[in-house]
Structures are given as structure tokens and as C-alpha cells.
Amino acid sequence: MISVAEARARILSAFAPLPAETVALPDALGRVLAEPVVARLTQPPFHASSMDGWAVRSADIAAATADAPVSLRRIGESSAGHAFGGGVGPGEAVRIFTGAPLPDGADAVVMQEDCSADDATVRVGRAVPAGRFVRQAGFDFALGQELLPKGRRLTARDIALAAGGNVPWLSVHRRPRIAILATGDEIALPGDPLGPSQIVSTNALGLCALVAAQGGLAHNLGVAKDTPDSVAAMAKGAAGCDLLVTTGGASHGDYDFVRDVLADRGVSLEVQTVAMRPGKALMFGRAGGVPLLGLPGNPVSTGVTAVLFLRPVLRLLQGLPPEDDRPPLRARLTVALRANDRREEYLRATLAAGPDGVLTVTPFARQDSAITSLYARADCLIPRPPNADPEPAGALVGVLPLTDGALSI
């Protein structure tokens, strides 16, 4: 057996970011930039008002007070999309609305609440300095400025920013195409009739959802029977994909054929077993030009190993660092942990806010790798190194969140 760290290193070394493709801005949510987004205009492109009021020359109203307002001649109006065509001279004012271009000659805006007006005259009851309530041209960004860096996963806010920069097309990494193949005579698809010795397949659909949530394209190949011919035939459906992920069949039992099928096809496995719990039966190699990641069949083992090994591969293929770059998260144990054995352990747990504001973490009392109901409730994993000492309640421990912001808005 090899360590989790060594297994991850071997697996990740087989992958590189996928090539770039160009997509329309409306289709770019969740994609990862292969090139920076650069502004194609200056925003705002002109000096603009940030308030409804009156565009004035600040020097004209320097002495204005509520008790002694300054009267200016009203000469026009500037609204969003309809700029005033002339200029503001001494003793003049232009009615202006939020977002409208500031007329030439004006250098400030007085709020409408500080003014009164009729059809010909504006009475200004407060002095304002030059620049008050004016957004300077380029206040947000300038032509040629980098708005979004290469390697960023695009959120809804990023889409809006790129639109503001007048960028209709983006260069992004191609989505990873991941083939998913479940194996086992004992599993049936949800909704299908169940035989007396069968259970419902959960792994493939869960993996497809994880791939989609991480920005990939999942291809569910179905369920292969426990025969070498069935496994080999259905694995051919992974042609053209960037990775084939199998569940089950990776152990050494009489009916675990995935490993044997690979051996018959001359595949050299770089990873065969990993010193971890859950998930010891994990393998990685290359099948017919397509890398293969074989995950264990127990559903929680599948989920945990997918988080530890498949998720980093999906990130790397899209041009992201394999690990989320957020600071490591630590939480206070609510219960004591026993000493660990020689395998690295990943305890399923829930997070909560403690009375002092510090996060608390509670591992489930039952950690069996077949209890999917508890795994669905888990917020995080508590990694425990091999031969770890007991941890008392109240100790701070590192936790691995089961979300990484892939679907951030």
C-alpha cells in the first residue's frame, strides 16, 4: 500500500490543463479562464453623475447656504442615454440624473434635495466642492485593463463584469469529459425492478453529479456485469474521454474483474491500494489511451475517494490548482477521538458555530462506509494521519470541507 499523498501525486502527474476553447459570454458561467479578460472600453466612458440633482460649476455656488441660496439659470437637462449637448457657463446649471454624462464646464453635482427650481431658475442652498457626486471617466476600469485573471472560475459576478467590459467571447479551458462505469451484478438502476439479492446503484449518479458540479461533462456508461467481457465491452464507451472512472471491481475478490481486465489488456497500474480508510481498494492506470481511476464500490468509500482524487483531477484539467486555495480550516472537537491505526482515516463530520464563534466539528458515531444517509449530512471530513494519538474533546483539528466553491455566485 502507498500513502494518500503518494497516490495523489502519481495520479495528478498524469494530467495537464485541457486546451482552450472560445465560448459566448452567456455560456461561460462556471468555466475556467484560459486567458485573462481585458476591458474593451473605459467604464464609465465619461464623467457621470452619481446622484439626481443639478450639474453646476462649484465656483458659482461657493457661498450658497440654505438661508442665502445662489440662483443659477436653468439651461437644459442630462439624463442616462441623453446627454446635454451644450456646456455650462458662469451662472448656469443643468438638471441631471444618476448615470447621465456631466456637461462640459460643470465640475460638481448638487443633490436635488438642496435645490429648488422653476422653469427658468435653480436656487442652490448648499455649497459643494469640485468633484462632488461625480464619477470620473474610468472610475470603474479603463480600456485595456485586466478585469479577470487567467485561471479564474467564472461566477455570476464575473459574467456581469465581463459584459461591462464589452467582452462577448471568452477563452476558457475545455470541460473535462469523464466516463463513469459502475460494476456489479448486485446493483440496479433507480426505479428498475430489484432482484432478491440486488441493491440500487448510487455511485454512478453521485459521481456524475460531482463531475457536473466541478464543471465537467459526465458520461454515464451504465452498469457492467461481473464478467470480464461485460467490463471490457462497456469500458470501450470511454473512448474520446479524458478519464474513465469505475466503481467496484477494484478489490481482489473472485468477482472483482476490473483489475483483471486491465491486466489482460496490458495496463500497468501506477496505484493499486492506498493506506486509507475508507477507500483502500483504489487503482489508477491507463486503459486504451484513456486514464482510468478505479474507485471502491462501497458508496461512502466512493464519495470520499472521489473528493480526494477525482476532484483534484477535475480542477487540474480545467486549469485550476488541484487544491482549493482557501486557508486551511480548523474546528474544535465536540467529542474525543481514539488513537488511529496505520491507515490514514477520513471521518465524516458536521460543522457548527460554537458559543464563542469558533467552529465546532462533530464526527458521526457510526463511520461505516455503507451509510449514505450520514455521508449526505456531512459538511466535512476530519483527516487523521496514520498512528495518530488520541484527541481530547475541545482540541482543534483540521477539517476538509466537502464543498469548494465551484458553484459560487
UniProtKB/TrEMBL annotation:
CDD domains in UniProt: MoeA (cd00887)
Q: Which Gene3D superfamilies match?
A: MoaB/Mog-like domain, MoeA, C-terminal, domain IV, Molybdopterin biosynthesis moea protein, domain 2, Molybdopterin biosynthesis moea protein, domain 3
Quote the InterPro entries the UniProt record gives. Answer: MoaB/Mog-like_dom_sf, MoaB/Mog_dom, MoeA-like, MoeA_C_domain_IV, MoeA_C_domain_IV_sf, MoeA_linker/N, MoeA_linker/N_sf
Q: Which UniProt keywords apply?
A: Magnesium, Metal-binding, Molybdenum, Molybdenum cofactor biosynthesis, Transferase
User: Is Magnesium among this UniProt entry's keywords?
Assistant: yes
GO CC, alphabetical: cytosol
Q: What's its EC? A: 2.10.1.1
Essential cofactor(s) = Mg(2+)
Q: What class of enzyme is it?
A: transferase
Pathway named in the protein's UniProt entry: Cofactor biosynthesis; molybdopterin biosynthesis
Instruction: Provide the reaction this enzyme catalyses.
Output: adenylyl-molybdopterin + molybdate = Mo-molybdopterin + AMP + H(+)
Give the residue spans that cross the bilayer. none
> Is Metal-binding found in the keyword set?
yes
* GO biological process per UniProt: Mo-molybdopterin cofactor biosynthetic process
A Gene Ontology molecular function term for this protein is: molybdopterin molybdotransferase activity
Q: What are the residue boundaries of the MoaB/Mog domain, all occurrences included?
A: 179-316
Explain the purpose of this protein: Catalyzes the insertion of molybdate into adenylated molybdopterin with the concomitant release of AMP.
PANTHER family, from UniProt? GEPHYRIN, MOLYBDOPTERIN BIOSYNTHESIS PROTEIN
Return the similarity comment.
Belongs to the MoeA family.
Protein name in UniProt = Molybdopterin molybdenumtransferase
